[in-house]
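Page 42, continued from yesterday. The earlier attempt failed because a stray header line got pasted into the input along with the sequence. Redoing it now with the clean sequence only.
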Amino acid sequence: MPSEPFTDLASVYDAIMSDIEYDDWITFILRTVIERGWKGGRILDLGCGTGNSTSPIFSRGFEVQGVDASAAMLAVAQEKLPQVRLFQADFETFELPDRFTLVYSVFDSLNNLLAPDAFSAMAARVARHLEPGGMFMFDINTTVGLRELCESGCVEGWVGDVYYRWDHSFDDASGFATVEAFCEKGGHSFVEVHFERPYDLAEVRELLLATDFSRVEALTYPTGECASEDAARIWVVSTKA
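This time it went through. C-alpha cells are written below.
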C-alpha cells in the first residue's frame, strides 16, 4: 500500500535531490525582486520541505521562516536549520504570527494544489501574510511542462545506497499528472503516489489578480525574460496591492 505523500520520502529526499540547483534559484529570486524594488525584510519559504530552498536564504543573512504540510520533511529541515522557525500547516489555511515582505515557493510546490479554489485559498493566505507592497514569487509547471515531463515515462537511478524509480503519467481527462515514486534503501522500500495539476499563465494571472495582487509577471529562468504562453515552466512574480 502506498505511503502518504512526503512521509517516507523525507528520509531519502536530500540524497535524490542532491543535484538540484536550489542556490541558483534563490539567486534568481533575489535578483528579480530587488530589480522590482524589494528592499529586504522578513521572508517566508512556502513549501520549504527539508529546508533545501530555505538554507540558501538563511546563509545569506536574511531572516527567513518556513512552512510545509509534511511533518516528516520539516523534521529533516529543523535538524539542518535549528535557528530557523518552521511551521507545519497546509498552504490553504496557514496562519503565522509574523508578516513578510517576500514569500517564495520553488520546485513545483504549488502544482500540488489540485483545484483553482485551492490555489485561490493559498494566494489569499499569502496576501494575508504579506506587508503592503510585498512580493510573492514562485515557479509552476504549465500543461506543456507536465506533459513533457510525463513523456519520459520513467526516471530511475542510484544515489549512494538509495535506488529510486519515478514513473510519470499524464491523464488528459482529469488534467492531472501522476508520479509513482518507488525508493529503496538498505532493504527497506516504499512507494508514494503524488498528483500534480498544471497551471497555465492566463489562469495564474486571473487567480492572483482576483486575490489582492496588483501586478503579475511571468518570467523564464534563468534569463528573466518574459515567458511565452506556451512555456513549460514559468516563474511568477507578483505584488500585493
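Notes: Helices lie at 13-16, 22-35, 55-59, 71-80, 116-129, 143-151, 201-209.
Reminder to self: strip header lines before submitting.
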